[in-house]
């Protein structure tokens, strides 16, 4: 086990020992290669550099209270990566090999898995990039799949404490028939200017986008889906321009199992005024309770938490989800993969 101040880890890159790579050449994926290099050597005309042929994923491995290591819903990340590949015409990485790569990567970096008590986790970042050389806009003939691991702490300040968010109207992150449903680099490049301009160097945790067509409905935050609670109902946006969050999908199932109603539908901005609780959710954010959402253009401020604490349903959902991830709650939906032998 490494000597790291686990409790103080930010959500950032911390060097680990190995990454796992696989190349697609001559029409097929090759064998896995284990590397301790942190750099990659690619052609200057690679499609990832010019035309954004890049997709990635983010998932976590947790050291549980019982000492076992669990990876959360890796099958869902494997499927979403395939969907992202389809969306930007890259070669799909096979589902079973994705699972094999995640397990390999966790085992190879086992000494960097944060201990249970720290509340930190080992973040896995798989990606696929087009490495084949092209000058005209067209899909590459060669690809690289790579996964690295890095221990991380909370994405938003204070972890499970409420943060302020802000609505941005000046920029769109994705379009209704665009690439927002895929986890591709271009979406994140498109969000950086909005983030910097809207969040004022940390005054807000993250920016919220409205639907690009009508600027009427809440889409999502820059790195997390949105949910709200009203009358024992879990409400989350239905939109063709947001990422299908695996955390959100899990919270929907947990909400139903806790006896809540669930609604997936467009959420008009004015409706924010009626919600009892609200949160941003994602692998990195887990549940990040929303203290308030400001709309600087209209001067409105929608407040969900006056004391900075999460609401009761958010807390229940958070505890249930974390419990499954850390092995203190039964994994009734079969969401975790136990990594044996570490
Ligand atoms: C834009 C965006 N929305 C939502 C999410 C949440 O998705 P997931 O719960 O699968 O991590 C992410 C990733 O963390 C994201 O980048």
Q: In short, what is this structure?
A:
The chain is an alpha+beta fold and 342 residues long. Helices cover 22% and strands 28% of the residues.
> Unreliable segments (pLDDT under 50, ≥5 consecutive)?
none
Number of H- or I-type helical stretches:
6
The major sheet is characterized as: 9 strands, antiparallel
- The gross shape turns out to be globular
Proportion of strand residues: 25-35%
Number of extended strands: 18
The helix content, as a percent range, equals: 10-25%
Distance between the termini: 11 Å
Indicate the radius of gyration in whole angstroms.
20 Å
Mean pLDDT: 97
**Bound ligand species:** pyridoxal-5'-phosphate
CATH class of the largest domain: Alpha Beta
Assembly type of the chains comes to single chain
Please name the fourth-level CATH homologous superfamily of the largest domain.
Answer: D-amino Acid Aminotransferase, subunit A, domain 2
CATH architectural type of the largest domain: Alpha-Beta Barrel
Query: Which fold name fills CATH's third level, the topology of the largest domain?
Result: D-amino Acid Aminotransferase, Chain A, domain 2
Mind sketching the topology for me?
Elements (H helix, E strand, L loop, with lengths): L18 E7 L2 E2 L3 E3 L11 H4 L3 E3 L2 E5 L5 E4 L1 H14 L7 H14 L12 E10 L12 E10 L10 E6 L16 H15 L6 E5 L7 E4 L3 E6 L2 E4 L9 H12 L3 E4 L12 E6 L3 E10 L4 E4 L8 H15 L9 E4 L3
Parallel strand pairs: 9-10, 9-16, 13-14
Antiparallel strand pairs: 1-2, 1-3, 1-8, 4-7, 5-6, 5-7, 6-18, 7-8, 10-11, 12-13, 12-15, 15-16, 16-17
Helix pairs in contact: 2-3
